[in-house]
């Protein structure tokens, strides 16, 4: 059976109520010496809990102090009593009174080290007086050159000042003073090293081992700051050997393993630390990072959530949980909520701004993304001088500066990518160049600049930049992934698939790479391979909303609508506020001909995300197919307002204007298409037909159709449109020749048969004309109505 006073001191690892009970028993026993009695009152006060605990704790602290007040009154020249009372004041947070007591002890016993050490600790911990602390600790070392506590604490002060090498020297000198082959602490749990000074056994073996564990731990932290992780791990391991019941050594070693990317070892250490000391927010946070990196998204979210519960004012776990939500789960709304909460806690949290911007961008909310990236740059530059950022020597000297530099560089990169979305390529290139200026070795800068140049059509420069990114980081999955997305964005799916494949080889546990490769495979009609990729993503992340959405779309392309609807409905169940899920369900419903339900889902998507141009654009295509051209124009007006440099929206609005017989407006839209991209043959074709229908500028109309044929030499639409122009001009031989060219490509083409029938009839071949017209009507019953719209009956 442990003695009550041992339980009171914490030697058995008892919980707070048990310690209160033991301290009370030890006090009532009446056999404790004055110092131990004061310690019993102090520990009981620190352990008080439940209703009325604050009042009881204050009474206990007063009782502990009263014991030393009486001792000092009876022996005012005894420095030991001042030290002990100072320890109590220090423990309960009354730093100024503690400093006064230590100062009196130093005056009375100028050759004693403990009051100097304790005052030095208070000066740097509570008063932020590093220089005063250094003076006290140096004075203690002059008195006793092998005072381990003085070496340890002076090293801590140097570390606080950023003088890591001097800190390591002090820790090493202190370690040299330790006896060889120290045995580990024997008790299950060890009381606080400060309150041990109130014990009658101040210099016992356990206290020495505590000092040894502390100094090894501090040197491990210093090595960690120097990025010397193997040395840090060795010191943390010695800390654990000396004091296996303390959680701190496991936390430190786990952090070092995490930095080395030895993730399973890190998780094992964090597990052990949390067994020893549950409720450590930092350990949960770090273990969450490790789980995140090995692809255990649910466990990562669980740890980040626990860290939030334990430290609800800390923005970091909110940021980390938000990153898991959007990268591993495809859940944008919860991610944005977490980043927003982090920014409420700390408006200068640059990582929250960057990641919220990325999430907005993935949701298609480019303007919101740009605002966040710009604010991140502004905040970052408040703490980082650009002239210093570009100085690599300075980056090496100041880790905080380097981190700030990386954040600012990343924000410029992300803003550049958002500007590409806005088709502001000049602005994007400026941002990527700024990224390079801050960090010339940052591969993302080259990836971004390459993506912008691809969009501009500068293929040679683009490929050079994209390849340079790979040279800078040949073994990193994200570089191949980002190069893949750049190719993906310009519909170069073969290159995109090759890069996604390389990213998967390097990191086979990232579901996003499988999802993106699956999307690219659908575009080249390799649906079964795409389905396999989406299945792989779901095996890695079983409730990944994006994987369900894109698998649903792939099933729809195979006309397997039952599975498609099952998947997209599951996505909506998992993320009922996902505008993307409703958008894709609308697409799938439209494929099935369920136009009314499709329009309802487009409406839900727009309500959830009213700034997504793609939704308006696709709904307009459905309205065009239904002949509801006025609604199509309204949707396309909105899409163009949101993305004014997207040629497909002008092209489709031209089609809608044509359907409304507003040929002049259609021609203006096609003009805009060709300003944005002069290689879109459909715009030449449609402008050709609009001019023909308007009955003006036939030479320009013919030139447009010929330009379309240059771009697409076997385009039957262009031949038909030329035939219509020649029909309207009365040149029936040329018209028939054009329709014949079209019929060589498709012998049952209704437009060509009907047009040739008109040409034959008007040139005197009534029988041949009637035959062609009948054949055309057999294929398309209302073909005559189309030609009537062009002014031909």
TrEMBL record:
Q: Which Pfam families match?
A: TPR_1 (PF00515), TPR_11 (PF13414), TPR_12 (PF13424), TPR_16 (PF13432), TPR_17 (PF13431), TPR_2 (PF07719), TPR_8 (PF13181)
User: What PROSITE patterns does this protein map onto?
Assistant: TPR, TPR_REGION
Methyltransferase found in the keyword field: no
- TPR repeat positions in this chain? 79-112, 148-181, 213-246, 247-280, 281-314, 316-349, 350-383, 409-442, 443-476, 477-510, 511-544, 545-578, 579-612, 613-646, 647-680, 716-749
Q: PANTHER family annotated for this entry?
A: TETRATRICOPEPTIDE REPEAT PROTEIN 6, UDP-N-ACETYLGLUCOSAMINE--PEPTIDE N-ACETYLGLUCOSAMINYLTRANSFERASE SPINDLY-RELATED
Q: What is this protein called?
A: Uncharacterized protein
Alphabetically ordered keywords of this record? Repeat, TPR repeat
Q: What's one GO-annotated cellular component?
A: cell outer membrane
């Amino acid at each position: 059976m442990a003695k009550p006073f041992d339980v009171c001191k914490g030697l058995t690892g008892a919980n707070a109520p048990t310690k209160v009970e033991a301290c009370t028993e030890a006090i009532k026993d009446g056999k404790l010496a004055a110092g131990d009695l004061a310690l019993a009152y102090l520990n009981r006060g620190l352990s008080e809990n439940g209703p009325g605990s604050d009042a009881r704790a204050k009474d206990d602290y007063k009782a502990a102090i009263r014991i030393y007040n009486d001792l000092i009154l009876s022996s005012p020249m005894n420095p030991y009593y001042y030290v002990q009372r100072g320890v109590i004041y220090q423990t309960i947070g009354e730093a100024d009174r503690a400093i006064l007591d230590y100062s009196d002890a130093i005056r009375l016993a100028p050759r004693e080290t403990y009051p100097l050490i304790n005052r030095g600790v208070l000066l740097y911990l509570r008063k932020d007086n590093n220089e005063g602390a250094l003076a006290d600790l140096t004075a203690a070392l002059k008195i006793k050159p092998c005072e381990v506590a003085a070496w340890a604490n002076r090293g801590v002060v140097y570390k606080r000042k950023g003088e890591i090498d001097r800190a390591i020297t002090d820790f090493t000198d202190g370690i040299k003073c330790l006896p060889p082959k120290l045995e580990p602490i024997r008790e299950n749990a060890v009381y606080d090293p400060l309150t041990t000074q109130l014990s009658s056994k101040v210099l016992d073996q356990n206290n020495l081992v505590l000092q040894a564990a502390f100094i090894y731990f501090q040197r491990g932290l210093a090595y960690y700051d120097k990025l010397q992780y193997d040395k840090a791990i060795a010191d943390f391991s010695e800390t654990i050997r000396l004091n296996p019941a303390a959680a701190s050594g496991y936390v430190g070693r786990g952090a070092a393993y995490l930095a080395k990317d030895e993730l399973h070892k890190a998780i094992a250490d964090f597990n052990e630390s949390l067994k020893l000391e549950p409720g450590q927010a930092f350990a949960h946070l770090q273990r969450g990072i490790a789980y995140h990196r090995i692809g255990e998204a649910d466990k990562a979210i669980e740890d980040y959530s626990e860290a939030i519960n334990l430290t609800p004012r800390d923005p970091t776990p909110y940021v980390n949980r938000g990153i898991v939500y959007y990268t591993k789960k495809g859940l944008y709304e919860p991610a944005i909520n977490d980043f927003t909460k982090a920014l409420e806690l700390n408006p200068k949290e640059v990582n929250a701004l960057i990641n919220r911007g990325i999430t907005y961008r993935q949701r298609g909310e480019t303007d919101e993304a740009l605002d966040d990236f710009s604010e991140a740059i502004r905040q970052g530059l408040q703490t980082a001088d650009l002239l210093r950022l570009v100085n690599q020597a300075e980056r090496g000297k100041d880790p905080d500066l380097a981190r700030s530099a990386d954040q600012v560089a990343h924000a410029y990169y992300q803003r550049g990518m958002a500007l590409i979305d806005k088709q502001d390529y000049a602005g994007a290139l400026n941002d990527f160049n700024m990224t390079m200026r801050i960090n010339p070795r940052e591969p993302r800068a080259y990836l971004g600049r390459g993506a912008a140049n691809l969009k501009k059509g500068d293929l040679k420069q683009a490929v050079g930049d994209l390849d340079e990114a790979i040279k800078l980081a040949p073994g990193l999955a994200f570089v191949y992934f980002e190069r893949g997305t750049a190719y993906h964005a310009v519909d170069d799916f073969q290159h995109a698939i090759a890069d996604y494949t390389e990213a998967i080889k390097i990191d086979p546990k990232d579901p996003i790479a499988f999802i993106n490769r699956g999307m690219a495979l659908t575009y080249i009609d390799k649906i079964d391979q795409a389905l396999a990729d989406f299945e792989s993503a779901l095996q890695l992340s079983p409730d990944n909303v994006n994987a369900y959405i894109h698998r649903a779309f792939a099933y729809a392309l195979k006309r397997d609508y039952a599975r498609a609807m099952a998947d997209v409905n599951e996505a909506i169940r998992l993320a009922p506020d996902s505008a993307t899920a409703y958008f894709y369900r609308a697409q799938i419903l439209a494929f099935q001909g369920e136009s009314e339900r499709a329009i309802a889902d487009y409406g839900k998507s727009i309500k959830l995300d009213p700034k997504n141009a793609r939704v308006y654009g696709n709904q307009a295509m459905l309205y065009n197919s239904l002949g509801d051209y006025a609604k199509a124009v309204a949707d396309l007006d909105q899409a163009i307002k949101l993305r004014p440099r997207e040629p497909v929206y002008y092209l489709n609005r031209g089609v809608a204007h044509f359907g409304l017989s507003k040929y002049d407006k259609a021609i203006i839209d096609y003009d805009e298409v060709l300003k944005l991209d002069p290689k879109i043959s459909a715009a030449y074709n449609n402008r050709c037909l609009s001019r023909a229908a308007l009955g003006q500028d036939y030479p320009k109309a013919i030139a447009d159709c010929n330009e379309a044929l240059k771009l697409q030499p076997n385009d039957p639409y262009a031949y038909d449109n030329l035939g219509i122009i020649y029909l309207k001009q009365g040149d029936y031989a040329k018209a028939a020749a054009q329709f014949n060219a079209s019929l060589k490509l498709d012998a049952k083409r209704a437009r060509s048969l009907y047009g040739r029938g008109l040409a034959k009839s008007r040139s005197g071949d009534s029988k041949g004309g009637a035959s062609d017209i009948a054949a055309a009507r057999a294929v398309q019953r209302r073909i005559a109505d189309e030609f009537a719209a062009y002014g031909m009956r």
